[in-house]
Design a protein that fits this description.
The complex is a heterodimer of chains A (82) and B (526). Chain A is an all-alpha fold. Chain A has helices spanning 3-15, 38-52, 69-81. Chain A has a single domain (3-81), classed as ACP-like (Non-ribosomal Peptide Synthetase Peptidyl Carrier Protein, Chain A, Orthogonal Bundle), CATH 1.10.1200. In chain A, helix 1 packs antiparallel against helix 2. Chain B is globular. Chain B is α/β, with parallel strands linked by helices and 526 residues long. Chain B is built from 16 helices and 28 strands. Classes of the chains: A mainly alpha (82), B alpha/beta (526). The interface between A and B is medium-sized, with 20 and 25 residues.
Chain lengths: 82, 526
Amino acid sequence: MDIRSMLKQYITKEIMHELDSSKLADDAPLIEGGIIDSMNLIALVAYIKESFGVEIGENDLDIENFQSVNALAAFIAKEKSG
Amino acid sequence: MIYLLHHLLTESAAQLPEHPALVFGEEHITYKQLDEITSKLARTLLDHGVRRGDRVAVYLNKSAQSVLCLFGILKAGAAYIPLDPNAPPARLSYILQNAGVRCLLTSSRKYGNVRQLLDGGGGIETVVVTDLRAGIEDIPGVTTVPWSRVQERTAGKISNNTIETDLAYILYTSGSTGVPKGVMISHLNALTFINWCHDEFGVTSSDRVSSHAPLHFDLSIFDIFTTLKSGATIYPVPEEYSIFPKRLIQFIRESKITVWYSVPSILVHMMVHGNLKYYSFPHLKTILFAGEVFPAKYLRELMAIIPHASYHNLYGPTETNVCTFYSVSEVEPGRTKAIPIGKACRNIEVFALDEQGRVVSAPGAEGELYVRGSCVAMGYWGDAKKTEAAFVRNHLASHHDEKMYRTGDIVTLDENGDYHLVGRRDHMIKSRGYRIELGEIESVLYGHELIKEAVVVAVPDELITNRLKAFIVPLAPNAMSEIEVEKYLSGRVPHYMVPETVEFRESLPKTSTGKIDRTLLTSAGA
């Protein structure tokens, strides 16, 4: 599964409590939409480290990278290749 | 005479009209501007049928507008009800109906949810939209008032016959029987707190005070009203900054915040996930915290990072606002014991009573903390039974009748006369500073047709005080999945009340009296 799909599955299941990952649009606003909060952000960061081997440091723990599934997937892909 | 909350604004506006009252992003609003726009809003509300004593709801994300709304409502002689902008619509609908709200102030960003709120049966007649974004679709049966109408209105003189014992706002808090309960706060109740903390912490017009806590938390009363009383400037914190500690740190530094008040979890979040120790905060001189226990090791660390600030632990339920406090001079190395909740604030009296109603004063002896004074709220909206149970007759007052509030917190006194929190009389817990009645979550669970038995326990957590775990006996094995339970709950209670883990059992252990053995399950959940 690609990064985007894995993220969507995690977020819809663990955060939104939805079984159907198509309920989350790739560009849906995660922060403005109240989906991400300080608690599940930390869990999401742990998931990203575990699943993609990408460690998100304090400097990258920022609004831009978590705006949407697209933004987050792009950031993770960049970190993996960099 | 200053006896109503909005007098604080009008008085400061008369003294310092050009001084900044509110700063939010690029918006800088002076006291004069704030006074004028809030009068216009009050006039507009009166135009649309808002009457003295009405309850007007505020449904907004944190912004300059949200502060503005409170004063517009108060000037009109009504009481404000702040709604949690992130709560599920079903819960908010309940609140609107319970309080008989007919007028709602919202933003274009939240407007889309308003229809959902009304679907729950709320009797909203008027909705005021606080920003100018166009293209808002009207909701049938509801008068939608655009902000332009407010801006164009001349306020004129607004006669307000409200007195200090009238309702100023209602804050809804977790209720053990499954629905939230509305704590009724009068102008006098609020001013008792505001006058104390203004004095105690020496807030002056040169201060820049953050407004981090949401409006439905009583920490906001300090952020907004004490700041305006002092002629100081309020800096509302955008909600998303709380999620990203780096942003919050940047905000505090760039805004040159001088006074910060929040739950400890947010400060811990900045330390643990935001590298707080690499930054300096030369302007921050007063740090207040309340709502949960600040773990000693994190407080010690924070005091080392920002050594020039003064630190104060504030304690008090919504029903009294802050009633005791403790100024922290140092947290000794190796100390793990929680810091005290301290002594009563000036103009407030507290005492610990044992089961026989006698005052406990011997160091180390335990009792339940009771509070008396003008800080004690008027009761719970529309719930005489719960009000009677919590706001009891003060049997120690010999010559007159008065109410005191029983906090449900078990405390002890130390040799210095400081109170310490020991535990609860009931099943209320704190998590991330949020007050949670485990019974509320359980009641909601019992409402599900596939759930036979349910109990929610608190699992102690170093960072957020408690995590929640639910044990559920479904009607039939495998009748439900964990995700279904969480989805069901997140449609009814705020996210912080949704247990992180759900365990299904065939049966739940019982005590000798036949009740669910919470203690056993709590240790199992740890």
